[in-house]
Design a protein that fits this description.
Length: about 425
């Protein structure tokens, strides 16, 4: 799932990175499989040339930005390494699906995953790889597991119903129920997701499918065996947003919206999988239906290797084109700042309007008293202190007398000062010595 090209020097992977992305996630934009393949071929040629020009040694940089000089005894591309593995594992199929770290994969990327898995057995292992094994790998795993859901649904739904005493509903992830005591954001109940559920056919069931698979691929605390919780990570980032400075907030806001888009698309993909499973059971040819139909129920138990998908995910999204506009406009529909109670704001504005300098002590006291109530849901610690301090900084700016506010805004714009409570108070209370 990596976007950047990789070669192996003496069996150790080396990747091409922009100079400003060493040791960081490389978000390289709309990189397709063909682009990634071409980049790898070119990167291998560049490495061979540089090693030849440097007496058989290749200069590189590790993730800590320490300079390295490697003696090149063996140099192979990722494709060449995979071809070597096929000698030992002849059934191995390798396919690239280069995706961004935060944003959703392209619609065509989901189809690439499906195309690669169609025709495989229900127990065929799937290996998903990226740089670290966090966001991209977990996203790929969720997509692959949702396809496995299709195989299970089409292959075994009719079969399990013939086994006495089996509660078939327990095997269906669309009946998944999350802990209702969790915060709404941790349950993935974003406004744009609510609209998706209302718009998409069987939207609630599709969300249940996706949530169950996300939790199984997530951390142990949500019943998974992985290291990344794609849904709850959004809520955790949103909580962190409140304590960041302005520059960090701008970056984190983009990341949060990208991850909401990814979650949205995984639910939409879950809806596609549900539709595809139903269609696959009906797509079996009439002359072959007798061989897979179960006598007791008449339902088909189609071998996973014989499943046929009549529609791509791209085609599904074309039929539901309104979903694209929905996520584009709705992914930022979050309450980014907590609302100050109207009565508290009116009190502070009144104090400032009457005598800002004379009432400054009371103003600061009341701001922090308001913050204590507003952030009462956060646990004690540095995060809560930082959130209250940022709130105080923004609120004091909000109620400054017009002349002082205009002066401080100009200084902030010129980067002569920052929107920091102590800096603002210092500017407001400073008296030039006579």
């Amino acid at each position: 799932l990596r976007q950047e090209p990789t070669v192996y020097v003496n069996g150790v992977p080396i990747c091409a990175r922009p100079a400003n992305k060493i040791g960081e996630y490389a978000e390289l934009g709309a990189i397709t499989r063909d682009i990634a393949k071409a980049n790898e071929v070119e990167f291998l040629a560049v490495c061979e040339m540089r090693a030849k020009e440097n007496g058989g040694k290749l200069k590189a940089v590790d993730i800590s930005k320490n300079a390295l000089e490697l003696e090149v005894k063996e140099l192979k591309s990722l494709s060449q390494v995979i071809e070597g593995l096929k000698e030992k594992f002849p059934g191995l199929v390798h396919w690239r699906v280069p995706v961004c770290n935060s944003a959703a994969p392209l619609e065509s990327d989901f189809d690439i995953i499906i195309k690669t898995m169609v025709g495989t057995a229900i127990n065929t292992p799937v290996i998903v790889n990226d740089q670290v094994g966090l966001s991209r790998a977990t996203t790929g795993c969720v997509a692959a597991c949702l396809f496995k859901e299709l195989q299970i649904s089409a292959s075994f739904e009719g079969l399990v119903e013939t086994v006495p005493g089996v509660n078939a509903t327990l095997l269906k992830t669309d009946k998944y129920v999350m802990n209702p005591e969790k915060d709404t954001l941790f349950r993935g109940e974003f406004e744009v997701v609510k609209e998706l559920i209302a718009t998409l056919k069987d939207g609630a069931a599709a969300k249940n499918n996706a949530d169950k698979i996300i939790d199984l691929n997530g951390t142990p605390k949500t019943g998974g065996t992985g290291i990344k919780q794609l849904r709850e990570n959004i809520a955790e980032s949103k909580l962190s947003y409140e304590i960041m400075d302005d520059a960090a907030q701008a970056f984190l806001k983009t990341k949060i919206m990208d991850n909401i888009q990814k979650y949205f698309y995984l639910i939409a993909f879950g809806g596609y999988i549900r539709e595809a499973a139903a269609a696959a059971r009906d797509a079996i040819e009439t002359d072959k239906k007798a061989s897979v139909a179960l006598p007791a129920s008449g339902k088909c138990a189609i071998p996973a290797t014989q499943l046929v998908l009549g529609k791509t995910f791209v085609a599904f999204m074309e039929e539901n084109a309104g979903l694209r506009a929905l996520i584009d406009t709705g992914k930022g529909n979050l309450q980014w700042e907590r609302d100050i109670p109207a009565a508290s704001l009116a009190n502070l504005e009144s104090l400032g309007a009457k005598d800002f300098q004379g009432n400054l002590g009371t103003i600061i006291h009341d701001i922090y008293q308001t913050a204590h109530v507003m952030f009462g849901d956060m646990p004690q610690g540095d995060h809560k202190k930082r959130a209250k301090y940022r709130f105080a900084s923004k609120t004091i700016m909000r109620i400054l007398p017009a002349a002082q506010k205009a002066e401080i805004e100009k200084l902030i714009e010129r980067k002569k000062m920052t929107m920091d409570l102590y800096e603002i108070l210092g500017k407001c209370t400073w008296v030039e010595p006579k």
